[in-house]
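Sample pair:
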Amino acid sequence: YEIEAGAYLEYQLADPVTVSGGYAYVPNYEDGDLTSREHRLRQQVAVTVGEIAGGEVEVRGRLEQRFRDDGDDTGWRLRARIAWDRPLGGEDAPTLK
C-alpha cells in the first residue's frame, strides 16, 4: 500500500482555464515496512468546457515526473480526466461528482 501527501499551486488564466503545479511524496509499504519512496512533480491544465444536465463538465490533462529512491531514472506519466460536478442545492449544499 501507499500513502500520498502533497500540495498544488493553482492559477486561473482565464474564466474556463486553470493551470497548476505541485509535488507529491509517496512512500510505499509492504507488511508495514517501508519499501520505497517516490517523489512526483506534477503540472496540469484544467478547462471547464460546458454544462450537461445542470452540472459543469471539466477536462484535465496532467503530466507527472516520478522519481524513486531505489532507482536512477525518471518515470513519465500523462493522465487525462473528464469530470462532471452538479450542485445538489444552494451555495453550501453538497455536490454530486
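The chain has a mean pLDDT of 93.
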